[in-house]
Amino acid sequence: MFHHSSKLQYEVRVDKPEPAFAKYLQQAIGGVEGEIRVAMQYFFQAMGARGDAKYRDMLMMTATEELSHIEFLGHAVALNLEGAPVEAKEEAAKDPVVHAILGGMNPRHILSSGLSAMPVNSNGVPFDMSHVYATGNLAADMMANATAESGGRVLASRLYNMTDDPGMKDMLSFLIARDTYHQQQWLAVIEELGGWEKALPIPNSTPEEHERMKDSYYFLNTSLDEPTPEGRWTSGPSLDGRSEYHVEEKMKPYGQKPDLGKARPGSGAQTEQE
Amino acid sequence: MFHHSSKLQYEVRVDKPEPAFAKYLQQAIGGVEGEIRVAMQYFFQAMGARGDAKYRDMLMMTATEELSHIEFLGHAVALNLEGAPVEAKEEAAKDPVVHAILGGMNPRHILSSGLSAMPVNSNGVPFDMSHVYATGNLAADMMANATAESGGRVLASRLYNMTDDPGMKDMLSFLIARDTYHQQQWLAVIEELGGWEKALPIPNSTPEEHERMKDSYYFLNTSLDEPTPEGRWTSGPSLDGRSEYHVEEKMKPYGQKPDLGKARPGSGAQTEQE
Amino acid sequence: MFHHSSKLQYEVRVDKPEPAFAKYLQQAIGGVEGEIRVAMQYFFQAMGARGDAKYRDMLMMTATEELSHIEFLGHAVALNLEGAPVEAKEEAAKDPVVHAILGGMNPRHILSSGLSAMPVNSNGVPFDMSHVYATGNLAADMMANATAESGGRVLASRLYNMTDDPGMKDMLSFLIARDTYHQQQWLAVIEELGGWEKALPIPNSTPEEHERMKDSYYFLNTSLDEPTPEGRWTSGPSLDGRSEYHVEEKMKPYGQKPDLGKARPGSGAQTEQE
Amino acid sequence: MFHHSSKLQYEVRVDKPEPAFAKYLQQAIGGVEGEIRVAMQYFFQAMGARGDAKYRDMLMMTATEELSHIEFLGHAVALNLEGAPVEAKEEAAKDPVVHAILGGMNPRHILSSGLSAMPVNSNGVPFDMSHVYATGNLAADMMANATAESGGRVLASRLYNMTDDPGMKDMLSFLIARDTYHQQQWLAVIEELGGWEKALPIPNSTPEEHERMKDSYYFLNTSLDEPTPEGRWTSGPSLDGRSEYHVEEKMKPYGQKPDLGKARPGSGAQTEQE
Amino acid sequence: MFHHSSKLQYEVRVDKPEPAFAKYLQQAIGGVEGEIRVAMQYFFQAMGARGDAKYRDMLMMTATEELSHIEFLGHAVALNLEGAPVEAKEEAAKDPVVHAILGGMNPRHILSSGLSAMPVNSNGVPFDMSHVYATGNLAADMMANATAESGGRVLASRLYNMTDDPGMKDMLSFLIARDTYHQQQWLAVIEELGGWEKALPIPNSTPEEHERMKDSYYFLNTSLDEPTPEGRWTSGPSLDGRSEYHVEEKMKPYGQKPDLGKARPGSGAQTEQE
Amino acid sequence: MFHHSSKLQYEVRVDKPEPAFAKYLQQAIGGVEGEIRVAMQYFFQAMGARGDAKYRDMLMMTATEELSHIEFLGHAVALNLEGAPVEAKEEAAKDPVVHAILGGMNPRHILSSGLSAMPVNSNGVPFDMSHVYATGNLAADMMANATAESGGRVLASRLYNMTDDPGMKDMLSFLIARDTYHQQQWLAVIEELGGWEKALPIPNSTPEEHERMKDSYYFLNTSLDEPTPEGRWTSGPSLDGRSEYHVEEKMKPYGQKPDLGKARPGSGAQTEQE
């Protein structure tokens, strides 16, 4: 069960409201790199967690923290919209500054939300829950979470660079810090469970006889004119310790030329296809 | 520039067509765990790759391989739809077997595609390109790719379990194998670049003064009644080697109680809010 | 800031797991009538609330309650999926009961989530945040909320009818009860603010000179052959007390026949249009 | 069956074309507050209306009116785009005014529609029919309609404020007027059917034994530190006349701590979860 | 301006209600091949039509007809849902026939719409207005319309085959007939304007100097092992009469190997990319 | 199976990077008129092609070419983003030129992709695979393809007009040329198969007894006040040679007034509807 307390997890201070930056901040709320995504992702993973219950608890606790991130970011958006134009005055209409403000804003911050945050990204595209990755496989979920936090910290760093407002920089430095931790939190689960050697290949419960092992350890060069880019992935022991990597330069296709024959009468094709 | 050769990368054999399994296979084509996603994700990452050109080449080569996976899966869907009902005959209409087949199929495999594959998932929801994660940050992209391949191999393993068709099992064992490799391929890039210690926190180019470091290394227990789930993430050296993990049991909120004051005249609020 | 405690707000008991009912329950989680929607809607309304702060508090408190509803419904979905088939065994494949179970399930409950809840509706369509209505106008928001709770209680009543499981009926009777209250909670705000007479038309801050008042109080019969359906809306005092309703049987169009003239050279039209 | 006559329902006059305002107007066509939504919502409600046929007729008549609103708004968009730049001339490219026009426009008004209206909102996001709310429950539908018209009038009022064009203000004053009426039209149905006391809780056909009545009349304070916001919803008779409101300050969770146990072999989890 | 009359354009008779067929029919309402799409496509094309006004009139007249098609199809859906189960009775729950009915239905026909039509396709995916193609180019629009009617008639023919209900077959035979005409109606515009020779390439207003003419008339064989499929498109005069077709077997890429160099500091990349 | 070679199909040269034009170019990548769409459309049509195998080969070859178009357009987007602002410097923040650049850009080109292409359109809306039209009917597919190429060439022509950059104009002149050819390529298939007379109505395999032929050849004038727009479609032989066109001025509705009667108990309606 969820509860709420009245103060924001982190202080939000906007020294100079900037409607365009409100639009930018939306990416951290409703973007695929944003906080709705991680809050909901960890929440759904927690609800589907099977196995050691501590992972469920951990997921739910961090889901709850992310809800608090949405909350202070939402406030930051609203504060950046204070003073944004809501009326076209004749003089203003000629003012290039007003034009620039309007051109840089999300118009729905005026028209739809009345100067407050929306669950959309910086293009105004609503967040869609297909981005909540929760597979029921602990390792796959941990990877998805570390990925989400990586994208999140990349975004927060870019937002930090795109503002000169000290209050906003301060708030973003907190987000950057929490994303630092959360990246490692999820990767630490993998380490605790024995590291990549034990976790890979994900799912590690797939029996070897379900896998065509002779295709499991080579890099396939599909280029007609480029040499294989050599690296850790082209030779040496595999990360799961089961084999050695090698390279297939020009794989001969294993399969047939596909052919579906004629269309069946009654299937809606042209007569010529039947 | 892309080229094509006429044979499938892997042989597709369907011993007993099963229209319901055609629907299931769609998840591997148009699901978020599917092949359109990885093909397009690696393609867009390649197009945006900056830094050492070998990663660009590697991404493009594997993108190209994934296009070939779409191709043989698409053929597998069509072969599973051979013989599916396209006409309601009066006798058939009473046959529970026909009903079961129809109830288990995607109706659009009859109505829209004429018994062939579509770029949709197993619920018939079209793939949407917002799932193509390409950040311009090499480490974040590698994480996203290893995640996608983890979800992909979980899916392929489940599909393997859900069919008894030997041809389908054989084809899926190839997919499972390639997903094994691709998981490691992307993680190997991280290892080659110095491992998690060097890669984390992602982006590793964010200056420390942009980060509120005192919030970077603790697990936040947001539960009112659960003890902190202890693990690798609650104590010991951080994975990036910069600090030690600890726990915050009951964080005192840093922030204020939010308050937006009154609504501005002309902003479309009720009079009572002004 | 959000917090969590470990027990569910309401007990979830599934006497006989029913994978098809798990699919049905998804509508109450990720449908437009569902709990993600109301949780997020009240949350975003709270973050944008201007005027008397008590409405903000009230919105945030109920948003928090709705998050707890997602949580127990998510558990109910998972419990209904216990025992669902994850492997096609040759014998099972011939069993009509297994076929019926599979035909009635969401395949992604097996393939994507590993037998647990997803943020999707009963068709498997992911929830999309465009359904979070938050206008910044208190009365419009209250209407949207009472509407959401009406749809929610219609849904919960239908789900109640569609199951014979005593545990599920018990859980749904709690949801029905809370939806009863929440409908009235939001309408009570309107009553407290003076009722419809004061609230209407929404927004009540629009100056009368912005409104073409002669078009504000008639029902327009656009039918060529049906008499006007008479009722409270065709005569008598308007609900806002400003006028009397009447009927326009055959409104003469006020406007012109539209004409855009020729296409401009360089605009990508056919030559014949220029 | 539908018919059309050649003149617009309301006159559209644009004194000074403003491509940015064309983008703003799109919200009234393809936004969730817009005319496609209400036209389609009333149309689908009419097609599903059961019970007294007069409500069906009324819904269809107003659906038809809303189609006419799309039509004149579409013309208004096109007229605002007259004269928008379709060619980058070298001199123009340096002109800050041209830049401001282009920055404020929807680029697809040039690239995709050739200077005319599209079924998208002011962010260019296409309207999606999941916003057509039609439940088959008359009262829930009336609520949804009054809500839609409230959002619509809030939007129209904001658009009115955002333009200085006399023709556009005139057209919007007509929309504001019709939204005034339509809000009341739908609420009048509820009044005619006996008012909230009879209509609530929606659906009023749910038997009391399907509802856990002891949870039907309290406000739940889920905050850890805020007092309950007192109001019409915390005490006094309920709007449906069945009970009295009260407050639950600290509800003890009714439910258990959720636990899903171990993952099943074959379900695609990690071995450690089994 | 739109008007309505009370009778359906075509009679709807359902001899034996079939909830699964209601789901199938949804494709003709809310699918990409369906009637909402064509109604809205012709409507938006009409609103943006420039040049000879008769095309605008024609588009609006047919848009209006398509609205009437939605209407009778919506009624057909509702009639097919008459008698569908809305309550799980203990005995019924064991009945395989009831199971088959439920497995074949769209659950939202029970849960969300209360046994009536929705603006969704046969997978329950809502129609999304991005499918309304209206370019402002008359010939491109005519092509899009003939395409939509082709998909529509393919669908109607498949639906015809999938039902044994005489009433439904009769109704579909009307749809098939109207789609026959509408395909030709739009193609006849192209013929009237001088046929393909004059219309192509679309837009025919693009000056030849904007086109790299030496790449305008060859079929590019991108296969490594397949001979060029010979046909009307590989030799002979081009359809626009401007040139002759030929074949490029192995085009030498015109372009460079792409290279973006290093990432810029401050752009959120990894340090190794800079 | 797919392969790749390292050079771009066409040279990409950006003389003066223009971040706003990067946003515009996105329409040609991820718009409905763009290259992802055609690449995937031809690919899925090829996978579902039945009948003469040469059409399958032709589709796959051109699908492959379109993948190469995505690739060079993606590079063009990245080159236009070179030098775009990634940091808000105090001086810059006051510079109207910087403001204009930022206002005209897609903010996600900075925040999400790190200055490279995304699979989105010029509004930042991700491409969604529902636009991949592949019906299994050869003629319907050819029409859809010619339509897509028409929209594509209209777009490319508009993009050509909207830039002054010689490199971009050169690249677009290649796209315009290829779209010229592809329009005709698909229409040539129809000509080869006997032209419209044989192809129409699509599908030409629908038996005449499935069609209510008396409704197959008239233009329906649904206007109350406009004369029928006369043209090739109102008289003369039909394009399929089966009949003559005529006009229905005022069609008498064939159907009934729809009536669904009362709502069923248990279906979630209001009591008044039962």
Automatic annotation (TrEMBL), chains A, B, C, D, E, F:
Which InterPro entries does this UniProt record tie to the protein?
A: Ferritin-like, Ferritin-like_SF, Mn_catalase, Mn_catalase_dom
Cofactor comment in the record?
Binds 1 Ca(2+) ion per subunit.
Provide the leader sequence positions.
none
- Binding positions for Mn(2+) 1? E35, H69, E149, H182
- Stretch list, region Disordered: 225-274
Q: Where does Mn(2+) 2 bind?
A: E66
- Compositional bias, Basic and acidic residues, is annotated for 241-252
Q: Which cofactor does it need?
A: Ca(2+); Mn(2+)
**Does the keyword Manganese feature in the UniProt annotation?**
yes
Task: Name a GO molecular-function annotation.
Answer: metal ion binding
Please report which protein family the annotation says this sequence is part of: Belongs to the manganese catalase family.
Q: How is this protein named in the record?
A: Catalase
